[in-house]
Amino acid sequence: MKSILALALCLITVVSTQAQTQLKPPTESVLDRFLRYVKIDTQSAEDQTTVPSTRKQLNLANLLAKEMNALGVQGVRVSEFGIVYGLVPGNLADNSKVPTVGLIAHMDTSPEVSGENVNAIIHKNYQGGDIVLPKDSSQVITVDKNPILKEMIGDDIITADGTTLLGSDDKAGCAEIMTLIDTLRQNPQIKHGNLAIAFTPDEEVSAGIEKFDVKAFGAQVAYTVDGETLGEISNETWSAKTATITFQGRNTHPGTAKGIMVNSLFAMADYISRFPHDMLPETTADRVGFVHPYTGAVEVEKSSLKILLRDFDLSGLDAKEKMLRDMVAQTQAKFPDVKVSIDIKENYKNMKEILKDYPELTDNALEASKRAGLKPFIKPIRGGTDGARLTFDGLPTPNLFTGGANFHGKLEFNSRRGLEKTTETLLNLVQIFAEKAK
Ligand SMILES: [Zn+2]
Questions:
Q1: 386 phi and psi, to 5 degrees?
Q2: Crossing angle for the helix pair 30-38 and 168-186, nearest 10 degrees?
């Protein structure tokens, strides 16, 4: 009975996705892969001198390399930094007519929440309402805070048990790319060019990508598969700078300080009081940038303040820089005995500055999502990505969704449909590149 039902469901799925009518299923479902990967603790750590920052990330790296070999991926290797590379050769008459497309996911999970002993729970056939996580009833995924749940009725939602994160960020990306490879191997009739595959460590601590060998990877364009909601495509990040303001005063023994001491703290307080309240992280969203005084040091003799500047537009970033410099002049005028100086460093630039010259990358991702029955949308990332770094290293790399939500926390979730639709989108994407062969 069970198998008849399964067969019927299978047929419905096949009939409903016209383009996939003739497809043989992968040898293992994306869900089963995902459940295997999340069991492996790959939490990365801040402030380490080595990459990977934690040796345990290599457990997943070695497993993925083994599975890639079993799926016929060529040139599989784990680099000294724990980056897994491999190539899925194209099956076109002339693979050089289409770009080698890179697909990248990261293996590590956030240092913020434990990823040890992840116990994934499948909430089958979700029928609406809040989801209380079984091992800690204070951990509740509410419809109020997660309106996307309203679109997930009937789906199988995957969560952790309330004691750990799930690790969908980014083991979903790993499972989806691996299932793409599996599906392509089962269906040689699907035409595609060369695909360069990489799984990276230490994304969460911004260290892994610095060891990425763009040249050896061999892709002309790439996608990170590391976003959230189904259909969410990102080709924009912040442009980012950091300012350091220094307030130089003069210290002396407080008992004999009259007319001598110049306390730098008061100048710093004056400077901080000048920040406009509508331009802070806590008061901005979407495409609006901010200035964020986030750390500093105070001593009578010398105080300093560090400030993040973030904006999607370089002109907006310049305006924020000018504002901080004007504030320096104002504080300096009010405290002539304190020497106030400003130093500004660039951190990274909006990848759109380069991706605007590669509109086909976004267009193909939009088309691939539509063919999977999704409603794709473009969402700028209020942060940086590994893709932004790669883009400026010469490998244009926008970011694709994974189906996940609530990254870096115990309320993280994904779903069967999220995993399957992302895999289907990747399958469409590699075909779209092949269709556009010159
Ligand atoms: Zn991620």
A1: -60, -35
A2: 140
Q: CA of 398: how far to CAs of 77, 99, 381, in Å?
A: 24, 15, 11
CB 409 within 8 Å of CB 165: yes
Catalytic residues: 108, 203
Give the tens place of pLDDT for each residue, 376-409.
999 999 988 899 999 999 999 999 999 999 999 9
Measure 413 CA to ligand 1 centroid, in angstroms.
13
Q: Please tell me the distance between residue 386's alpha carbon and the centre of ligand 1 in angstroms.
A: 9
Instruction: Report the C-alpha gap between 32 and 30 in whole angstroms.
Output: 6
The rounded Å distance from CA 108 to ligand 1 centre is 8
Instruction: State the residue for tokens 């005084």.
Output: 293
> What spacing in Å lies between the alpha carbon of 331 and ligand 1's midpoint?
41
**Edge-first strand listing for the sheet containing 302-311:** 290-297, 302-311, 239-248, 339-348
Cβ distance 133 to 140 under 8 Å? yes
- Other Cβ atoms closer than 10 A to 149: 22
Q: Report H helices in 127-219.
A: 168-186, 214-217
DSSP states of 304-364: EEEEEEEESSHHHHHHHHHHHHHHHHHHHHH-TTSEEEEEEEEEE--THHHHTT-HHHHHH
At 292 the pLDDT is: 96
Supply the DSSP symbol for 236: -
Which bin fits 401, alpha (ψ -120 to 50), beta or left (φ > 0)? beta
DSSP SS3 for 404: coil
